[in-house]
Design a protein that fits this description.
Chains A, B: Keywords: Membrane, Transmembrane, Transmembrane helix. 2 copies of one chain form a homodimer. Chain A has 608 residues and is an alpha/beta fold. Chain A has 26 helices and 11 strands. Chain A has 2 domains: 20-420, no CATH class; 453-607, Transcription Regulator spoIIAA, CATH 3.30.750.24.
């Protein structure tokens, strides 16, 4: 079996073509740098998800390996993210310790749903999420995550009993006097240090600098990139040292299960004690119904994140379906190793890119580093101060708050600010799911409103042979069911207020690309309605598609159409030469209209 | 206070202007003819709604009076309809006799919701209901109503315990051997007679016929129009006669409360015995939550029906808001007289029209006839055979099944057949509400899909000065968030497969009427992406609105645009004269692209 055939099954195999020592070294450096980021983030995000710290690391190694085998974009790194951890946290708090089982099952089911999305080509669903919704959603998530870390940051004990944004904030405010000074100092200090270290990498070394200067520049960059790991390591050392001297200045992370995760099926049943001591048994169906909408929303959010990253770094060469399969298998296989839901991390992918990664194989080195930590470093994890982990999370998420879009939106599209606001407020006050869905719903409603209310222009025109007519032109290219009434009313109003009398109306279809049955029927009955008032309706330049729909829908009652101005002129001349005759025929019809069945016929065809 | 001022408050007062004796006679004849239709229909529809027959009549007199005072279209008659009776029936079956209270409260609340719709201009919501959805929905309703009457028609006793279409049909089939021959004979015979009588009115009397012939023609028309009343009267007489002789050949309607309805507040609490004898007490909140989605759906269906009729008969002169207020007050005031939800009836409005009604005052005469029947005829109502009432309903609803739209839809727009099918099947198998909502949802999804996947055309063009470029033209006028990815992918694919090399791309915006923030950002990042491959993107003829959004969204990164072909030529000449210089600058940039931050910058702006 040649490499070509292998590549059909494992697209990642192509990375092995010409995998030189230089590539290996680049990937190794990038992999380790990403590892130094994912270690503290993984530990922090798993506490954010309401789980013991090791679960963040369990989630951080499979993604890299799977993506190396299946992925198409070298920069992407898959692992735990703040957003998915937050969404997972809703299912880990039941009765205190319901924890890992529901989270791991969610990971497995998310993978399955992503696989389904890949096969049904449902990845396009993320197209429905506009930038304003994304902005509102991620900003709200950042605020919620930030708020959830305030307690840890300030060393406040206890729980508000509700993970909502408002109740978390008010709990922190009410307990502010109970904060632990040492933890608060460590927390606030850590954030300050992290933000300063983050700035370091913006210091540019000039091209023509000395070698020493360049080395120093490189060192600064490395410190800046590994700042989370350095901070956690350093604060843990302090805590360890204090502990050896019998002191406990900080609230620590607590016990961590040592060693590698065991491989077993994802949990399809679980039991956990409630706070009052009774043990709850949950079967598969109970667990699925507890997970509820998360089973659909976690995959959509995961895909949204992943698509954004692979698009951002991969440009045009990325196969969306292939990416979806890689993401799906990262979750499915991960769930066998007690992973929580994972997706591409924007911040770590940027680190990966900046570290000069050459192929996704870098992810394997990241995974190896994570496994090494699990194997050998777990005894030291319990000494990590919680305030330091909170600082890691907060200084990561504050850059997700996108206040800077408000100004351009205010300048150019205020309507969309409403979408941002609705998504943000509902995400904060109700839940991120409701916020996201409401934002999409509002956007879609505006889209429908746009097609329902096409702008019509009315012009008084004259043909070359000086026949006057009213030209009605819809500015939109879709003419569908919600617009029928609007167009009909618009034309009727225009007839009432027209400057000069003319009983010829030309409806310009040259821009109309699509017409549905309801619209075709609407045009048919408009024609009849106008005919009853002896006004002539003619369509100008309908496309073949439009003609087909009109012909099929209206049968005998088809509306006259012409393809260009010349034909229009000809038809008008015919009509006006017959006008007097017409008048004689039409006038008595109009007289007896009340006793006539024409109106009823007309009626039933409008909306029977 | 002059007539003009009165008209501002009561638009119906204008009908009194020049209300001649001739108008009076016309309205009286039409009013009584409609009365002869609404009497049997009202009795039948109230049993369809699961209530005693008198409630149908309680619902049949207020609408006419209110509409005479407030309505704007002389043909409209407001009263009980089969569709609303069916929707009401869901709330009358609780424990057997929960009946009238919930139905009357539903009438009151529907009126309030309609008033709200009038003030918020939400009447436009019915624009969302396309013809295919209407067809599927009314056909399904007709089938459900028809099925629900089979038991009565065949004299089958008992109940399937479930009012769904499938369970009703299977109950009738399983009990078919228990049918009562006399009832079945009466039922099937009645339908046959009604259908034949219905045909009578199509017999046209020639214009030049003798007076006798004309009289005979008029008589036939009257018999045809009053066929329901004649049938019910005749079969009741037979039943009454048999009863006097101690025989009971038919299942009868049962006791009817005699006399006019009392006027009192709509019920805000109720109690009723369950089948096991326990009495259920319901407060206002309980009742509202029991009515649930009906509180929104009944008004929407009512408005849909009413709009269709007033549009059909009133043409262009009808004020939709005014109609909505009339409908709303018919329900609100009606609920004080124990009415169930009412709306315009298409069949009775057609009778009204055909009877030569001149003003809505005809509705007052209909109301008077209904009150007269309640006052003096109620002692005879119990003798109405149920099979005859079922026949009245069935022969009314079979014409609501609109199989004839299938052929044109198949010919010209098969996609919309899916909407018909979905609405029909879900209405039959789940519920009419779910069917309706799913149909609207599917239509909206297709509408969004259309804006999400604009057709792009790609042409290889040449300017007058023989500079070659690729012209990209979207066929649609809306360029919004769901389309961004599609356009970007389309252009990238087109670049890959282009016949001749050119690094100039012109995006034709002349048809684009609207652009949102997401699309503007998308164009901005497309431009950067293309620039990285040294391809130039230029917009042709964007409108001022589009320019504004682009400028606001992209700030420094604005995309070059030109207004016509001449400007295009000028720009191209500049570009091509600099091309060699450009190549020298761009080539090395492309070499180092991997280590460059350009891609990240690009990335974050796509979907950060």
């Amino acid at each position: 079996m040649g490499l070509n055939q292998v590549e059909k099954i494992l697209p990642g195999a192509r990375w092995l073509r010409g995998y030189t020592a230089q590539f290996f070294i680049s990937d190794l450096i990038a992999g380790i740098t990403v590892g130094l980021t994912v270690l503290p983030q993984g530990l922090a995000y798993s506490t954010l998800a309401g789980l013991d710290p090791q679960y963040g690391l369990y989630s951080a190694f499979i993604g890299g390996v799977v993506y190396a085998l299946l992925g198409g974009c070298r920069e992407v790194t898959i692992g735990p993210t703040a957003l998915l951890a937050l969404m997972t946290s809703r299912h880990t708090g039941l009765g205190g310790v319901s924890g890992p089982h529901l989270a791991v099952l969610l990971c497995f089911l998310s993978g399955l749903v992503e696989l389904l999305m890949a096969f049904l080509r449902l990845g396009a669903l993320v197209d429905l999420i506009s930038l304003p919704v994304t902005v509102g959603f991620t900003s709200a998530t950042a605020l919620i995550i930030g708020a959830s870390q305030l307690k840890g940051l300030l060393g406040i004990q206890g729980s508000s009993g509700d993970s909502g944004f408002l109740s978390t904030i008010s709990y922190v405010i009410s307990k502010f006097h109970e904060l632990s000074p040492t933890d608060a100092l460590l927390g606030v200090g850590s954030i300050t240090i992290l933000l300063i270290l983050r700035k370091l990498k913006d210091i540019k070394t000039p091209e023509n600098a000395s070698n020493e200067r360049k080395f120093f520049g490189g060192l600064l960059w490395l410190i800046s990139t590994a700042r989370n790991a350095i901070l956690v390591l350093f604060s843990s050392l302090v805590a360890y040292h204090a502990h050896q001297n019998g002191q406990m200045p900080f609230i620590l992370t607590g016990k961590v299960r040592p060693g590698l995760p065991e491989m077993h099926l994802p949990p399809f049943e679980t039991s956990f004690p409630l706070s009052n001591g009774t043990v709850v048994e949950m079967g598969f169906i109970d667990m699925v119904s507890e997970l509820g909408s998360s089973i659909a929303l976690v995959p959509i959010i995961a895909v949204l994140g992943n698509v954004a990253i692979s698009k951002a770094f991969g440009g045009t060469g990325v196969d969306a379906t292939q990416e979806l399969i890689a993401l799906s298998l990262s979750n499915i296989i991960g769930s066998f190793f007690s992973s929580i839901p994972v997706t591409g991390s924007f911040s770590r992918s940027a680190v990966n890119h900046a570290s000069g990664v050459r192929t996704p194989i870098g992810g394997i080195y990241t995974g190896a580093l994570v496994l090494f930590s699990l194997g050998f470093l777990t005894p030291y994890f319990p000494y990590m101060p919680r305030a330091a982990l909170s600082a890691v999370i907060i200084s990561a998420v504050i850059f997700m708050i996108e206040y800077e879009v408000v100004k351009p939106l205010w300048r150019c599209s205020r309507r969309e600010l409403l979408t941002v606001a609705l998504t943000l407020i509902l995400s904060l006050c109700v839940s991120v799911e409701i916020g996201l869905i409401s934002g999409v719903f509002l956007d879609v409603a505006f889209l429908v409103q746009r097609t329902a209310r096409p702008v019509l222009t009315f012009d008084h025109c004259e043909t070359e042979s000086r026949v006057e007519y009213m030209m009605v032109k819809p500015r939109h290219s879709l003419l569908c069911f919600p617009a029928v009434e609007h167009v009909r009313n618009g034309i009727n109003r225009a007839i009432q207020v027209r400057e000069k009398f003319t009983n010829l109306i030309v409806f310009d279809c040259r821009n109309v690309q699509e017409l549905d049955y309801t619209a075709a029927k609407g045009i048919g009955s408009l024609k009849k309605e106008l005919e009853n008032r002896s006004i002539h309706l003619i369509l100008l330049g309908p496309s073949d598609d439009v003609k087909l729909v009109l012909k099929g829908s209206l049968k005998g009652n088809n509306v006259q159409h012409v393809d260009n101005d010349n034909e229009l002129d000809n038809i008008f001349q015919e009509l006006t030469s017959h006008r007097n005759e017409l008048k004689e025929i039409v006038a008595p019809l109009l007289e007896q209209k009340n006793d006539d069945d024409i109106t009823i016929m007309n009626a039933t065809s409008i909306r029977k």
